[in-house]
UniProtKB/TrEMBL annotation:
Gene3D superfamilies: Winged helix-like DNA-binding domain superfamily/Winged helix DNA-binding domain. HAMAP family: UPF0122 (MF_00245). The keyword DNA-binding applies. Might take part in the signal recognition particle (SRP) pathway. This is inferred from the conservation of its genetic proximity to ftsY/ffh. May be a regulatory protein. This is UPF0122 protein NE675_07715. PANTHER family: UPF0122 PROTEIN CBO2450/CLC_2298, UPF0122 PROTEIN YLXM. It comes from Megasphaera massiliensis. Belongs to the UPF0122 family. InterPro entries: RNA_pol_sigma_r3/r4-like, UPF0122, UPF0122_fam_protein, WH-like_DNA-bd_sf. Signal peptide: none annotated. GO terms for molecular function: DNA binding. Keywords: DNA-binding.
């Protein structure tokens, strides 16, 4: 559950500008400010069901953007490579440095 909330927040950071302003506000109220569906509905002057429907639709849109564009997956891959390079450089053996250089070169591809 928490992982889903974190993932949605990350997707919102990446693809949020592709949503309508009202969808962005709805998502921010629910995921960032941790408001309930009723509270989100009150803020947006829509019903609780309307807030739920808007959240569900916006979440589906964010997931569909990620399926097509894979920006979050690419970001995570790059972050993992950077972490591995950092770990190799911390050890500073010759083979570690060569592997770090190789990984950095792959990032440019």
């Amino acid at each position: 559950m928490l992982e889903d909330v974190v993932r949605m927040g990350r997707l919102l950071d990446l693809y949020g500008p592709l949503l309508t302003e009202k969808q962005q506000t709805c998502m921010a109220l629910y995921f960032d400010m941790d408001l309930s569906l009723s509270e989100v509905g009150e803020e947006l002057r829509i019903s609780r069901q309307g807030a739920y429907d808007m959240l569900k639709r916006a979440s589906q849109l964010l997931e569909s953007y990620e399926q097509r564009l894979r920006l979050l997956a690419r970001f995570d891959s790059i972050q993992n490579t950077i972490d591995e390079v950092q770990d190799l450089l911390d050890h500073q053996g010759y083979s570690d440095i060569e592997r770090a250089k190789q990984l950095l070169q792959e990032l440019y591809l």
